[in-house]
Amino acid sequence: LLAGTQDNGTLRYEGGVWLQSGLGDGGDCGVNVQQPNVCYLSRFGMGLFRSTTGGAWTGWDWIGPDVEPEQNQPNGALFYPPMAVCGNVVAQAGATVFLRTEGSDPVPTSPWVRVALPPGERASALVFRDPGCIFVGTDRGNIYRIENNLGLWREPLQIRTASGVVSDLHFTAGAAGIPGRLWAAYSAGDD
């Protein structure tokens, strides 16, 4: 279990004790549940760090995405851009959703793939349905679905419009004959 703590870095929970795992501004974190020693942390602005040692203090490596200034905060991304992990697929987003498939020997890691959101949109929340589908909530209140078809990430499809900011997304998988459910939290107005 990892937790970003804003000005106090990233913490890792070990048997009833929280230990410092990474310095800097602690942002979103994620774990590959298929390989729990592979985990990710973010800080302010775009870019992620990956650990293959379960988040050990010395085990973090920068993996990007390396973005142009206009793709970073304050204009192209939020101060803490959202990120998500589903199996070997990791994503981080601002005005563009960056996705990559992490490799493990002998499979190499893919380069970051860029999927631009419509003009004026910035991601404020991300959640995967599965490794081939991600939902993106925006600071304008819209929700988009981006799917991978035959190895190519498709253009965003708008599936919901509302006012306010999408502050969180959660997907609950369905059972046989029962569709899954996408949950969204919104904040409205300027408060």
Could you describe the 3D structure shown?
By secondary structure, the chain is an all-beta fold. It has no helices and 18 strands. The strands form five sheets. Strands 12, 13, 14, 15 and 16 form a five-stranded antiparallel beta sheet that branches. Strands 4-5-6-7 form a four-stranded antiparallel beta sheet, with no helix packed on it.
**Secondary-structure element series:** EEEEEEEEEEEEEEEEEE
Radius of gyration: 16 Å
Kindly report the average pLDDT value.
88
- Subunit organisation of the chains: single chain
Question: How does the helix and strand content classify structurally?
Answer: mainly beta
Total beta strand runs: 18
Principal-axis shape: globular
Q: Please report the number of helical segments.
A: 0
Runs in which pLDDT lies below 50 for 5 or more consecutive residues are none
Q: Portion of residues in helices?
A: under 10%
Give the strand content: over 45%
Distance between the termini: 31 Å
Q: How many strands, what sense, and barrel or not for the largest sheet?
A: 5 strands, antiparallel
